[in-house]
Amino acid sequence: MSDETVPLLEVRNLVKHYREASGARVRALDDVSLTVRRGEVVGIVGESGCGKTTLGRTIMRLVEPTSGEIRVDGVDFASLSGAKLKAARRRVQMVFQDPFGSLNPRHKVGVIIAEPLVVHGVPGAKARVAELLDLVGLPGEAAGRYPHEFSGGQRQRIAIARALALDPALIIADEPVSALDVSIQSQIINLIGSLRARLGLSMIFISHDLSVVRHVSDRVGVMYFGKLVELAPTSALFERPRHPYTSALLASVPRPVKDVVREKRAGAGLVAAAPGEIPDPANPPPGCAYAARCPLAEPRCREAVPPLAAVETGHEAACWRSGEVAAREPITSA
Amino acid sequence: MTRLPETSPTEPILSVEGLSLDLRGTPLVEDVSFSIAPGEMLGLVGESGCGKSVTALSIMRLLPTPPIAISGGRILFEGTDLAGLPEAQMRRLRGRRMGMIFQEPMTALNPVFTIGSQIAEPLRIHEGLSERAALERAAELLARVGLPSPRTQLARYPHQLSGGQRQRVMIAMALACGPRLLVADEPTTALDVTVQAQILALVDGLRRDMGLACLLITHDLGVVAEICERVCVMYAGRIVEAGPIADALGAPRHRYTRALVETIPLSNPPGRPLPSIPGNVPPPGARPRGCAFADRCSAALDRCRAETPPWTMDGARGFACWNPA
Ligand SMILES: Nc1ncnc2c1ncn2[C@@H]1O[C@H](COP(=O)(O)OP(=O)(O)OP(=O)(O)O)[C@@H](O)[C@H]1O
Ligand SMILES: Nc1ncnc2c1ncn2[C@@H]1O[C@H](COP(=O)(O)OP(=O)(O)OP(=O)(O)O)[C@@H](O)[C@H]1O
Ligand SMILES: [Mg+2]
Ligand SMILES: [Mg+2]
């Protein structure tokens, strides 16, 4: 099933419109195209409401796309049905933000982790559960306990074990550390890194925290208002952003404590803040959605939507003036 | 008792001394002390459940009592101890001299009243302004917090605004009567990073221009380092380290502060494993004897599990650790 030349995941021209109670149409995803290669982690960042979760859920087919193609191992899910669809779905699993809400409180952890195995009729569930618990760093006796007996970080380990049960090729992790305490986040980030090394996992890692995304991803996609506005290898994106919104995001991220301490002078101001707010999704402006906040905007930006186009090998940006984007202050490692 | 040296010669506006809070006999916050001078922004950081919000609510005397009560210590605001002040006097202070902004503005805004009437109300009650004059002031305040076309906004309802706009309205309400103290509890956690930067710049500007004393509560060390002069780091209900940013975060002595600063992805090169802190934060009621961090600490001594470490000064910074870095 896995031909090495075919990308693991290929998303083409994905569109998802929601209809609100008022009748207004929300363009949650607007022509998004993206590939994930085998063994690769692609980070997705963007402000609240820009469509990150919708992207993940649509790839999982938890939400039906309005149009567009999603291919896993070269196979379009829409062309499958019945047993074939069920088998194909095993290849992609999801981990959610809220490690409590996503675990059934009335079931023991062993039952929760075994559930996908049972649904897909995989034998030997008990041994597999023990193996999975070990893999995510939990003791075997955890199988006999209930979710509420575990801390947030441990619950996220349980959710990850469940997502791994069917040996998926791709994990979609939607804000997997955002609800965790700061001192626990690094444990889970490290777990994800070690699972990746041991199992060759591919992943879409959704987060609003740029420093976390930078830490775990090979490539990063930046979303704004339902569109992918920039996609690049992680270091290129952080060092040479080519979309003004990416540049504003980088400038808004608090800098490493050491850098701040070093540079802190009495009376020094804060980092530059990008002015303005995100447009109303039911009322999108013509042209580039970022134009109203963009320091580089010129008349054509308000008229025509810039396409996502290559600016360098492997680096794409959707901006008419991508050549003039300043790098501002990328967050630098210590 | 945790004590923070005065870095500023002026009298502090707020001085919390040995504050303890209980939840039906279970200690939530123990022996917390700090002070804030006019025009100063003090950061209070710590992980979920360590007691930041209940500390803030106790200063405003907005604790849900029962079940939570002040069990010890003093809260001196411009010299008056708020800990035992009658509610009628407290209400006057809250509206005029002290303002608070919360993480989720929708909880503080009333959905059925317009923005204008909500900002104007305290101005009519406390300042005795006419309806017209109060609305005029409300529009000025909205302009002050950077809301576009303030006059139009007066007639809008909270749900018609974005999260960042609602947060600006709440700041305008907190500032309406010219307070001396602003308590901001995670004012930007629900916002996106670019909007977060706008709101923090706004609060920072107000502090400078109006000489406000600000208490900024957050779990984000990067934000505190960027915007505050001094910081108090809380762990499991106690302040474990406090002092100027350059000392307390730049070269922490307490093992918890040090571990926290080292584990955040921001401080580490991408792609490599992060240093991490094993274990979990103990909830109130399950906090161990001695230092509450001892079970997770790589440098814990036997003594750490037996006796609460005393507050120790090192220059302008203080910490409570038996085996400091
Ligand atoms: N079931 C739904 N019905 C109508 N609109 C929806 C629905 N789900 C999402 N939306 C809208 O689609 C847009 C994208 O939402 P989505 O949840 O994908 O954003 P997000 O980037 O994940 O945001 P966050 O960072 O807040 O999680 C938003 O405007 C949202 O209000
Ligand atoms: N109304 C309440 N009733 C019972 N317990 C409460 C109440 N409010 C807070 N607590 C408890 O008091 C402790 C401190 O809570 P607090 O809200 O101050 O934490 P925090 O530091 O603000 O955390 P967070 O970062 O999650 O906001 C927690 O263990 C919490 O469960
Ligand atoms: Mg989401
Ligand atoms: Mg709180």
3D architecture notes:
- The complex is a heterodimer of chains A (334) and B (325).
- Chain A is α/β, with parallel strands linked by helices and 334 residues long.
- Chain A has two domains: 9-217, 3-Layer(aba) Sandwich (Rossmann fold), CATH 3.40.50.300; 241-327, no CATH class.
- Chain A has helices spanning 52-59, 82-89, 109-119, 125-135, 152-164, 182-199, 210-216, 234-239, 244-252, 257-263, and strands at 9-19, 25-36, 41-45, 67-72, 75-76, 92-95, 170-174, 202-206, 219-224, 227-233, 309-312, 315-317.
- In chain A, the strands form two sheets. An eight-stranded mixed beta sheet of chain A has the order 6-7-8-3-9-10-12-11, with helices on both faces. Chain A has a four-stranded antiparallel beta sheet with strand order 2-1-4-5, covered by helices on one side.
- In chain A, helix 3 packs across helix 4, helix 4 (125-135) packs across helix 5 (152-164) and helix 5 runs parallel beside helix 6 (182-199).
- The radius of gyration of chain A is 21 Å and the shape is globular.
- The N and C termini of chain A lie far apart (43 Å).
- Chain B has a domain at 102-176.
- Helix content of chain B is 33%, strand content 22%.
- Chain B has eleven helices and twelve strands.
- Chain B has helices at 52-60, 87-96, 105-108, 115-127, 131-144, 150-154, 163-175, 193-210, 221-227, 245-248, 255-263, and strands spanning 14-23, 26-36, 41-45, 68-77, 80-81, 98-101, 181-185, 213-218, 230-235, 238-244, 312-314, 317-319.
- In chain B, the strands form two sheets. An eight-stranded mixed beta sheet of chain B has the order 6-7-8-3-9-10-12-11, sandwiched between helices. In chain B, strands 2-1-4-5 form a four-stranded antiparallel beta sheet, with helices on one face.
- In chain B, helix 4 (115-127) crosses helix 5 (131-144).
- The relative contact order of chain B is 0.15.
- The chains are: A alpha/beta (334), B alpha/beta (325).
- At the A-B interface, helix 6, helix 7, helix 9 and helix 10 of A face helix 7, helix 8, helix 9 and helix 11 of B.
- The structure holds adenosine-5'-triphosphate (2 copies) and magnesium ion (2 copies).
- Residues 18, 20, 26, 28, 46, 48-54, 208, 281 of chain A line the site of one adenosine-5'-triphosphate (ATP).
- Chain A: Pfam families: ABC_tran, oligo_HPY.
- Chain A: Keywords: ATP-binding, Nucleotide-binding, Transport.
- Chain A: It comes from Salinarimonas ramus.
